[in-house]
Design goal:
- The chain is α/β, with parallel strands linked by helices and 518 residues long.
- It is 40% helix and 14% strand.
- It has helices spanning 11-15, 18-32, 72-77, 97-100, 118-123, 128-134, 138-148, 160-169, 190-197, 199-213, 227-242, 273-280, 309-313, 315-321, 323-327, 360-367, 401-406, 425-439, 445-462, 467-484, 488-492, 494-503, and strands at residues 4-6, 37-39, 53-57, 60-64, 89-91, 176-181, 217-222, 258-263, 304-308, 330-331, 334-335, 337-344, 350-355, 377-382, 389-391, 415-420.
- The strands form 4 sheets. The chain has a 5-stranded mixed beta sheet with strand order 2-1-3-4-5, with no helix packed on it.
- β10 and β11 form a beta hairpin.
- α6 runs parallel beside α10, α7 runs antiparallel to α8 and α9 (190-197) crosses α11.
- The radius of gyration is 24 Å and the shape is globular.
- 54% of the residues are buried.
- The structure holds flavin mononucleotide (FMN) and iron/sulfur cluster.
- Iron/sulfur cluster is lined by residues 269, 287, 440-444, 447-448, 485-487, 489-490.
- Its cofactor is FMN.
- Belongs to the complex I 51 kDa subunit family.
- Residues 426-471 form the NADH-ubiquinone oxidoreductase 51kDa subunit iron-sulphur binding domain.
- This is Formate dehydrogenase beta subunit.
Length: 518
């Protein structure tokens, strides 16, 4: 058997030098006259170990990482093709603590299989969910998804089954499945990893959604900053079409479903579902007033399911192993697993899929290993740029939609960004307002005008101008934005601002040496 070498082509691994490593390995193979197959897989998400190279040995896979091009010669010299010892030797990937501690349901194949091989996908359980779904009525599929407790992973946590039921029950001559792959939240990369590392799971999830709701066409709206994901998804759709997974007869059934990949133009607000629909229709991305809900009148005025990548990619395992299996994981009303993305100033950054319920402290201190700088953790922003900053005093908060809401925070797309004690929370509060001002679609006044006034008022606090009065003004402004904005961009910007003021009041005290924010 010729040796197999797995080298990730995931963007994160590429950014860390995976391409150079792949080239060095290929030329070393040629020089030594060794025949081997190089598979460009996705990443398993332990980014502190990327580029992580794996070899298939008689005793299973053996990983090495982080591999530098300069390691390649010595890797060959130490017999890495048969799992030989080396300073980069990590052993069986499943035993690496960061990976061993996870519960991989949605990401089970990511970093393991060849992303564009349907054979490899099927060998690892791919298409079981769709095959089972095709045996059921649409209503029974929707019931399974509802029963699983799956909630939208894009941010709002809305029950996926209920959304699907609304579309199933709405009459339309054409219905659509739209996958939201805009992934604009800071510190998030789960959608990208799935699209690059296991694109068929998303295609399978979307196809199940189509069969379940009567939609025959799907669109994946991917942010333009993800060229690798766009390329992989386009190729995967082609492969799926050729294999009859997509097309006029899905896996030989009476259902038709096909899909297209569309690329966004780089606006954060185009991740908001109605602005995304406008953008897909070729218009400037502006938030639409609801009602009508997209489920009733969505893309081109037709009933539309719009779901996040991870929501859709979680459906195949539910349809494969059953709603009860999935529901068994998690806590409270947060069922199943959630891919937590650990980023920022953190020692072990990466993607960690786990059942809901771990505390924030466990995630940051034990899984993330604290800060990369070695300084104390000061704050953790959870849920993207609209998420609250959590101080250490709230580290006992379990990762659960309701528990976070009870602490005036949100889980969002489950991205967490860690800051050490050098972070200036006044600057972070200003940044939140400035971000809102830049990204606002401009449709409603509290967000469009409020965010700019917010920046100006925080600048006055920074400059020591009537700090108490201006702090009260920012608080008042946050209330107006929270309750008066049309969508969550203006409505949630108060979370990072108010959590900074509430949990880090010392950073807002006038300091004579403080200079105006640049
Ligand atoms: C300003 C803003 C940006 C958003 N960005 C995203 C995004 O990038 N990806 C995403 O899936 N949802 C995003 N959302 C949430 C979507 O509006 C919507 O709730 C989601 O796509 C629904 O899918 P889900 O039920 O599967 O989560 C955003 C919302 C707002 C208000
Ligand atoms: S809150 Fe902001 S982004 Fe949302 S509709 Fe209003 S102006 Fe547009």
């Amino acid at each position: 058997m010729i040796p197999r070498i797995y080298i990730p082509a995931d963007s994160g691994a590429l950014a860390l030098g995976a391409e150079k490593v792949a080239k060095a390995i290929a030329s070393e193979l040629a020089e030594r006259g060794i025949e081997a197959k190089i598979v460009r897989n996705g990443s398993r998400g332990a980014y502190f170990l990327e580029p992580m190279v794996e070899v298939a040995t008689a005793n299973g896979r053996v990983a090495y990482g982080p591999v530098r091009p300069s390691d390649v010669k010595s890797l060959f010299d130490s017999g890495f093709l048969t799992g030989g010892p080396h300073k980069r030797w990590l052993g069986a990937p499943d035993k690496i603590p960061f990976l061993a501690k996870q519960t991989r349901l949605t990401f089970a194949r990511c970093g393991v299989t060849d992303p564009l091989s349907l054979e490899s996908y099927k060998k690892h359980g791919g298409l079981n969910g769709l095959t089972n779904a095709l045996e059921l009525t649409p209503a029974a599929i929707v019931a399974q998804v509802t029963e699983s407790g799956l909630r939208g992973r894009g941010g709002a946590g809305f029950p996926t089954g209920i959304k699907w039921k609304t579309v199933l029950d709405t009459v339309g001559d054409r219905k659509y499945i739209v996958c939201n792959a805009d992934e604009g939240d800071s510190g998030t990369f789960a959608d990208r990893m799935i699209m690059e590392g296991d694109p068929f799971v998303l295609i399978e999830g979307m196809t199940i959604a189509g069969v379940a709701t009567g939609a025959t066409k799907g669109f994946v709206y991917i942010r333009s900053e993800y060229p690798h994901a766009v390329a992989v998804m386009n190729k995967a759709v082609e492969v799926a079409r050729k294999a009859g997974v997509l097309g006029a007869s899905v896996l030989g059934s009476s259902y038709a479903f096909d899909m297209e990949i569309r690329v966004g133009a780089g606006a954060y607000v185009c991740g908001e579902e109605t602005a995304l629909l406008d953008s897909l229709e070729g218009k400037r991305g502006m938030v639409r007033a609801k009602p009508p809900l997209p489920a009733h009148k969505g893309l081109f005025g037709k009933p539309t399911v719009i779901n996040n990548v991870i929501s859709l990619a979680s459906v195949p395992v539910i349809m494969d192993k059953g709603a009860a299996f999935y529901k068994d994981f998690g806590m409270g009303r947060s069922r199943g697993t959630i891919p937590i993305q650990i980023a920022g100033n953190v020692k072990y950054g990466g993607l960690f899929e786990a059942a809901f319920g771990m505390t924030l402290g466990e995630i940051v201190d034990e899984i993330g290993g604290g800060t990369a700088t070695g300084r104390p953790v000061k704050a953790v922003q959870v849920g993207g740029p609209l998420g609250a900053y959590f101080p250490r005093a709230l580290f006992d908060t379990p990762f659960d939609y309701e528990a976070f809401a009870a602490k005036d925070g949100l889980i969002g797309h489950a991205g967490i960004v860690v800051f050490d004690d050098t972070a200036d929370m006044l600057k972070q509060a200003r940044f939140a307002m400035e971000f809102c001002a830049i990204e606002s679609c401009g449709k409603c006044t509290p967000c469009r005008i409020g965010s700019t006034r917010g920046v100006e008022t925080i600048d006055k606090i920074t400059a020591g101008i009537e700090p108490e009065k201006n702090l009260a003004l920012v608080t008042d402004l946050c209330n107006t934005m929270k309750f008066g904005s049309l969508c969550a961009l203006g409505g949630f910007t108060p979370y990072p601002v108010m959590s900074s003021i509430t949990h880090f009041p010392d950073d807002f005290k006038p300091a004579p040496v403080r200079v105006a924010a640049e």
